[in-house]
Amino acid sequence: MVVAVDDAPDPTGLYRIRDGAYAADLLITAVSEFDLFTWLAEHGPTTVSAACAALGLAPRPADVLFTLCAAHGLIERDVQNGDVIEVTELGRAHLVAGSPLDLRPYYGSLSERPAALELAHVLRTDEQAAWASAKPATAAGDWSGRLGDVAFAGRITAAMDARGAFLAPRLAAAVSDIPMDRILDVGGSSGIYASALLDAHPEARGTVFERSPVDVAARTLIEDRGYTGRLGVVTGDMFTDALPGDHDVHLFSQVLHDWDKARVEHLLRASFDALRPGGWLLEHDTHIARDKRGPLPVAEYSVLLMHSTPGKCWSVGELSDMAELIGFVDVEHRSTIADRGVLLARKPF
Length: 349
What we know:
Elements: H1 12-19, H2 23-32, H3 36-43, E1 46-47, H4 48-55, H5 59-71, E2 75-78, E3 84-87, H6 89-95, H7 104-108, H8 114-125, H9 150-174, E4 182-186, H10 192-200, E5 205-210, H11 214-225, E6 231-235, E7 247-253, H12 261-274, E8 275-285, H13 296-308, H14 316-326, E9 329-335, E10 341-346
Helix pairs in contact: 2-8, 5-13, 9-10
């Protein structure tokens, strides 16, 4: 059984410490390397695209940067009207050249931190610094290329399993009203989230779809947890292989945040094609708000993802728009716990 969490102390703060590890370095870089707020004070209000062009910022990492700055109250951001940004009084008072309370030298004293230097490179080039700043870069060009290393794959699978012990039961509770017969956990790692859904639906069965060698670690953890009879593992690559058919629920738990828009759209379309008519997509993750002004813990986590993967924390609006364009209906977002939530979308009959 997945461990009950109702009586456990809330570890949200512990998740935030780990997930926000790179956020301070991004702000240091914005101040010391790009003098972002001085530029905004001189040129704002302006658009995100104009700021990118002037400062030499790539769109994906810039989006993460401006969401973080908005979440900290350093800029105003209006994504509904051209994605306009403008420095706030807080930013003007403390991060703009010429202010008597200028903190730029204070931030600049940390500009040589390795992560700050890496983030400056990511901001300019959109080239990820790989998982945990691993060197040399992998042949795959991002952290996922390291999953071919059995030892690394085992560590990552164990890490995701540890993260899910508290989160998985709350996900299951949030979607307890969704009928489930056959659950496909795409990129499901240890299967801990599918296991929690099975606990809530005793008659259901499930499948974890994972690449090698993560599939080996998944089978071991599923067996150790006692779910071998109800939760199988199918080996495959979610980007090159068709998803297994005959499932009425597809779960992507903290998967899409590792990938760029093209690959997120590919996965959503693959899910739509493989789902039974009337079936449900459950996308469980940390989501940026529609207005891209927070929440702060998610904006901070997005920095880590931007640094180390081709992805970011996607906004509720971005994911909803993609799902609806593909053909999903009844799209809604529900909060779970520890800054996570689940986006639900149904394939029409």
